[in-house]
Write a structure and sequence with these properties.
The protein is an all-alpha fold and 241 residues long. The protein has 8 helices and 2 strands.
């Protein structure tokens, strides 16, 4: 079975970028949430995107937004998007056909989406001037594209050098995120808004965990391949080349 990833430095660098994106975002989320003390930030109740609302304390979309380090969270989201896009182009070989192309397209959609969330805040000002449309488009884009990407990567796991367990986990994570998406949207649009932060994270975190699994899995596969002793066929190829 032919691989869909590059080899050597490009593949390892791309895999590292894909893995670092969610780790950077999680670090920024922890730091930003810790700085939000009035009232204390609740990851189950509060919107994720309210962490990135800069400026004065305000009530936006039914909740108080008071994030002193909102710019840190916004930078984390933009960094995540950039790392995912660049990492995917480095990691996947577009010459390998539809699987590689579809994964990169989904990665770009997810990367642009999470970057839009960081650039266009979910604030009252953006709700008034119409820029909230870009925030909403970005959030829903990453939720859908990111979880579909996890399923596609899981289905192509062997072609990335991933083990069966990791491939199944990726598929399950993507499916769980897609199931949680309509539940989250119903919670919002019905006006119930019960623990919206919990449902929002149920859609987002499977994507982030999936990117860590992909990046770390490819790095491990590349390391094992580099450490593997050459077979007789490899020796013949080196002599004749």
């Amino acid at each position: 079975m032919s691989t869909v990833v590059r080899s050597g430095v490009a593949a390892r660098g791309g895999a590292l970028f894909v893995m670092l994106g969610p780790l950077v975002s999680w670090l920024c989320e922890l730091v930003t949430a810790a700085a939000w003390q009035d009232p204390p930030y609740s990851p189950l109740y509060n919107w994720v995107s309210h962490l990135g609302v800069t400026g004065p304390r305000q009530t936006a979309f039914g909740q108080v937004a008071n994030s002193p380090l909102g710019a840190v969270m916004d930078a984390g989201w933009v960094s995540y998007g950039a790392l995912l896009i660049v990492g995917s182009f480095l990691l996947f070989d577009l010459r390998k056909g539809a699987s590689a192309i579809s994964i990169v397209i989904l990665a770009v959609l997810a990367g642009v989406g999470v970057s839009l969330v960081g650039v266009f805040q979910g604030s009252n000002a953006n709700a008034a001037n119409g820029l909230i449309a870009f925030h909403t488009l970005g959030a829903q884009g990453v939720m859908l594209a990111g979880n579909i990407m996890a399923i596609v990567v899981g289905a192509s796991g062997a072609r990335l050098g991933l083990g069966r367990g990791r491939s199944v986990a990726l598929t399950a994570l993507g499916a769980a995120g897609l199931v949680a998406f309509p539940v989250f949207m119903a919670d919002v649009f019905t006006g119930w808004m019960w623990d919206v932060g919990m449902f929002e994270r149920a859609v987002i975190y499977p994507i982030m965990i999936g990117h860590v699994l992909v990046g770390s899995g490819v790095i491990g596969a590349q390391r094992r391949q580099a450490d593997r002793p050459p077979t007789p066929l490899d020796r013949v190829d080196r002599v004749t080349s």
